[in-house]
Amino acid sequence: MNFAGILVALMLVPLCSGGICDEGPPGKFCEPNLTGYHDCVYNPKTGKVEDHVYECPPKTRCTCMGIPCQTSNPCGNYTLPPVWPQDYTADFNTIDKICSPAGCHTTYSRFAMWRDTVNRKYRQDNTIAPHDPAYEYFIVLANKQSTYDLYHVIPSATRCTKSIISTFPKKITDIGTFFKYDGTEEVTGIITKRWLWKSGGRNSGIPINTYIWNSYSGKPLQFRMELPGSQMSKTSRNFQAYAGTFVPGTPDQEVFVLPNYCEGGQQQFDVGEFEEFQFFKPE
User: Which of 36, 82, 141, 270 has its CB 3.0 to 4.6 Å from that of 55, i.e. a possible disulfide?
Assistant: First the structure.
C-alpha cells in the first residue's frame, strides 16, 4: 500500500448499509470530526462499493471539509481559528435574502450588543426592516434569585415589560474549529484571515453550502452564508453580516441603565420575543 508512512489504515472492510459510501458515487470523504477519511472504492469482483477508512497522522487532519475530496491525499496541516472574547461592545449590519419560486425577500437589520460577564449584564438593540417595531432593545440584569431579569424596551411606545430567564445570554457564535484557513482576503480595505467551510455535494441532488468568516486581530469582521437550495426545495438563502464595531472588554455601564418608565411594576412578556443574536451554524 503506497499510503504507508503517510496514513494509518484503521479498517478495510466492505461498506455496511447506510454508510457514507451508499450516499453517492465513489470518492474520498472526511470523517465528521476530520480525524480521518473514507475512501469509497468500487470492487469489480463483488460489484459493491467498499468503505476503506483511514486515520490522518498526528498534527494533521482531513482538509476536504464536508464535501467530496479533490485530492489523492486528504490529510494535511491545519490552523485553528481565533476564539472571540467573552466581553465586548459590538454591532453587526446584516442582509438576509431568501429566494423561492414565489420570489425573493430581503431583510435588512442592525444588531448592537454589549456583553459584560463580570457584572452579569447584557444589552441587545434590534433594528429590523421590515419589522414592527422597527427598533427595540433588551437588557439583562442579574437579580438576587440567581436568575436574570430580562427587560424588553420599545422607546417609540414608551413601553417596558419584564420577564425572568435562567441563563445568561451566550456570546456570539465562534468560528467552528473545523473551519479551514483559506488565506487572506481584503474586506472594506482591511486585510483579513479567511476561514472557510463547505458541506454537501455528496451527489447531484445535494447542493454545496458555503460558510465564510473573515477575522482580523482576533476579532470578527464579516460572516457570509450561501445556501443555493436543493433541486426539490428550490429555495436559496444568502446571508451577510458585517461588524461595524467590535471592541473587546467591559462595556460602558451607562448602556445598561433602564429608562424611567421601567420603574415600578412591569407587565410580563413572553420570553420567546427575545432571541439573542447568533450566527448560523453550518449544517
Answer: 36
**Would you state the pLDDT for residue 283?**
62
Residue 128 pLDDT: 84
Distance CA 175, CA 168 (A): 20
Q: Is 107 helix (H, G, I), strand (E, B) or coil?
A: strand
Q: What is the pLDDT of residue 231?
A: 80
Q: What is the DSSP string of 61-89?
A: EE-STBS---SS--EE---PPP---SSEE
Closest CA to 221 of 282, 172, 281: 172
Give the model's pLDDT for residue 15: 33
199 grid coordinates = 458541506
Q: Which amino acid is at 39?
A: D
Q: Is the peptide bond before 82 cis (omega within 30 degrees of 0)?
A: no
Can you list the residues of the chain whose pLDDT is less than 70? 1-18, 130, 264-273, 283
Could you tell me the three cell numbers for 18? 447506510
| Contact indicator for 214, 197 with CB cutoff of 8 Å | no
Which residue in this structure is represented by grid cell 496541516?
77
Q: What pLDDT is recorded for position 264?
A: 61
Q: All 3 cell numbers of residue 197?
A: 467551510
Rounded CA gap, 136 and 126, in Å?
5
Note whether 59 and 205 are within 8 A (CB).
no
Q: How far apart are CA 174 and CA 85, in angstroms?
A: 9
By the 8 A CB rule, do 250 and 116 touch? yes
- Cα angle: 187, vertex 227, 126; to 5 degrees: 65
Say whether 223 sits in a helix, a strand or coil: strand
Instruction: Write the pLDDT tens digit of every residue in 202-240.
Output: 888 899 999 999 999 999 999 999 999 988 888 999 999
